[in-house]
Amino acid sequence: MEFYRLIENRESIRDYNPNEKVHEEVLLRILNAGRIAPSASNKQPWRFILVSSPQKLKEVHECYHREWFKNSPHVLILVGDKSKSWKRSYDSFDSIETDLAIAMDHIILAAENEGVGACWIIAYNKNILAQAIQLNENEELYCITPLGYQNPGFKKRGNKIRKSMDEILEII
Ligand SMILES: Cc1cc2nc3c(=O)[nH]c(=O)nc-3n(C[C@H](O)[C@H](O)[C@H](O)COP(=O)(O)O)c2cc1C
Questions:
Q1: Rounded average pLDDT over 51-73
Q2: 9 ligand 1 Cβ < 6 A
Q3: How far does residue 34's CA lie from ligand 1's centre (Å)?
Q4: Does any domain span residue 158?
Q5: Nearest CA to ligand 1 atom 18
Q6: Does 12 sit in the ligand 1 pocket, CB within 6 Å?
Q7: Contact indicator for 63, 125 with CB cutoff of 8 Å
Q8: Which residues form the domain of 17?
Q9: Is residue 163 included in any domain, yes or no?
Q10: d(Cα 33, Cα 108) in Å, to the nearest integer?
């Protein structure tokens, strides 16, 4: 899809058909968009965990209590490792959140390009999610998204509620 049309069309999707899995090759193309995302000093301080099995999904779906989330046939979890991320020398600023956010944005845009719904979720219960997956030492949870197709009849909102350019842009 043409890039500007793609970013106009993308919406957070909160409607998933639990019975329609996404083919593995499609999932891999979406995940590859995250794999090749840029990161500070190219440290790539991330790990992607794709949850697709019914048993694990049941556990992971408990981390965010919205009915639409519990219907998603896949959940992608982005995990970051602060021992691997880039730190700015003079003030130790850690780029990890930026790195993980860029990876997630690549993934969400790639999902849109594949006609697969996604919704960035941050308001999950960290403890429940951490119990469901195996985190390595130094790893932390950063963001998750359901991945899947919508139920028949689903329609996007089709309107972007955003501040105007006048409100956010300063040209000096
Ligand atoms: C960092 C971040 C965290 C978000 N967390 C949640 C969330 O926990 N639950 C949810 O339903 N949507 C979440 N969203 C989706 C936003 O609500 C959504 O992107 C915003 O309202 C704009 O709508 P749009 O994505 O449809 O354009 C999150 C988005 C971002 C970027």
A1: 98
A2: no
A3: 18
A4: no
A5: 12
A6: yes
A7: yes
A8: 3-151
A9: no
A10: 9
Q: Amino acid identity, residue 125?
A: N
Answer yes or no: is the C-beta of 161 below 6 A from any ligand 1 atom. no
Ligand 1 pocket mutation, candidates 6, 12, 13, criterion most atoms within 8 A of CB: 12
pTM of the predicted model as reported, rounded to 2 decimal places: 0.97
Token pair 């990890």: residue: 96
CATH number of the domain where residue 131 is located: 3.40.109.10
What integer best gives the mean pLDDT of the chain?
A: 97
Beta-bridge partners for 141: 79
* Predicted confidence (pLDDT) per residue in 125-158, tens digit: 999 999 999 999 999 999 999 999 999 999 999 9
Q: How far apart are CA 106 and CA 100, in angstroms?
A: 10
Domains in the chain, number = 1
Pick the residue whose CA is nearest to atom 15 on ligand 1.
Answer: 120
What is the per-residue pLDDT for 53?
A: 98
Cα 118 from Cα 140, distance rounded (Å) = 21
Q: What is the pLDDT of residues 84-130, one digit of tens each?
A: 999 999 999 999 999 999 999 999 999 999 999 999 999 999 999 99
Q: Give dist(CA 109, CA 3) in Å, integer.
A: 9
Whether 98 is in the pocket of ligand 1, judged by its Cβ within 6 Å, is no
Q: What is the number of the ligand 1 atom nearest to the C-alpha of 157?
A: 26
State which of 7, 120, 161 you would mutate to test the pocket of ligand 1, scoring each by most atoms of that ligand within 8 A of its C-beta. 120
